[in-house]
């Protein structure tokens, strides 16, 4: 066996190990996501039942009931957050399987679509968006870029919730090797 054949064989074995590890990771993420859904459904279902029982109490609720309702609200918010995390795990598993479909994507259009998807989170708030006017087109997978922008801008909205007026700035600058560096800044925590 020549040196070149040996190196090709090692390369093929290494690629197979990488494929095997990727498949195992994907299966693990799928199993964890599935296994976490059942207890999460129990938490949200029983939380709603407790809320109903507390609402059925006659008269003005005592302070302990009001406090319990506050605890339930926190529990429900945490359950929603956990559901989003599980959705994120599933998205990672799907992204690992899907081939990249690279094409020119106008960053301004992708940002506009992400903001539209996030409109419910922005409702009733004062949010000042400052998005650079000269955003370039980037070579990207449009669906993955959309998911990324929704997550990043969603974090900016989430962490500016306590601000009377949120400010979110989006800029782009040339990076190394023809890349584009996108920066998102906010005035939140």
Description:
The protein is an alpha+beta fold and 189 residues long. Helices cover 64% and strands 16% of the residues. It is built from 5 helices and 5 strands, in the order H-H-E-H-H-E-E-H-E-E. It has helices at 3-55, 63-97, 107-117, 119-122, 142-159, and strands at 102-106, 127-131, 137-141, 166-174, 180-186. The protein has a 3-stranded mixed beta sheet, with helices on one face. Helix 1 packs antiparallel against helix 2 and helix 3 (107-117) crosses helix 5. The longest helix has 53 residues, at 3-55. It is flat. The termini are far apart. The mean pLDDT is 88.
Helices, strands, pairings?
Layout: H1 3-55, H2 63-97, E1 102-106, H3 107-117, H4 119-122, E2 127-131, E3 137-141, H5 142-159, E4 166-174, E5 180-186
Helix pairs in contact: 1-2, 3-5
Summed up, what is this model?
The protein has helices spanning 3-55, 63-97, 107-117, 119-122, 142-159, and strands at residues 102-106, 127-131, 137-141, 166-174, 180-186. With 189 residues, the protein is of the alpha+beta class.
Q: What tags apply to this protein structure?
A:
189 residues, alpha+beta, three-stranded mixed sheet, 5 helices, 5 strands, 16% strand
């Amino acid at each position: 066996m020549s040196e070149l054949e040996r190196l090709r064989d090692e390369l093929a074995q290494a690629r197979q190990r990488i494929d095997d590890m990727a498949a195992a990771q994907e299966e693990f993420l799928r199993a964890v996501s599935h296994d976490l859904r059942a207890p999460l459904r129990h938490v949200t279902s029983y939380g709603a039942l407790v809320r109903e029982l507390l609402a059925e109490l006659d008269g003005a609720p005592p302070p302990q009931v009001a406090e319990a309702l506050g605890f339930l609200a926190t529990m429900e918010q945490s359950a929603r957050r956990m559901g989003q995390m599980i959705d994120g795990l599933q998205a990672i598993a799907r992204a690992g399987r899907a081939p990249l479909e690279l094409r020119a994507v106008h960053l301004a259009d992708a940002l506009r679509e992400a903001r539209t998807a996030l409109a419910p989170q922005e409702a009733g708030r004062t949010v000042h968006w400052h998005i650079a006017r000269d955003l370039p087109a980037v070579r990207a997978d449009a669906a993955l870029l959309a998911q990324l922008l929704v997550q990043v801008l969603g974090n900016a909205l989430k962490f500016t919730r306590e601000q009377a007026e949120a400010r979110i700035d989006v800029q782009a600058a040339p990076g190394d090797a023809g890349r584009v560096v996108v920066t998102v800044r906010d005035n939140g925590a």
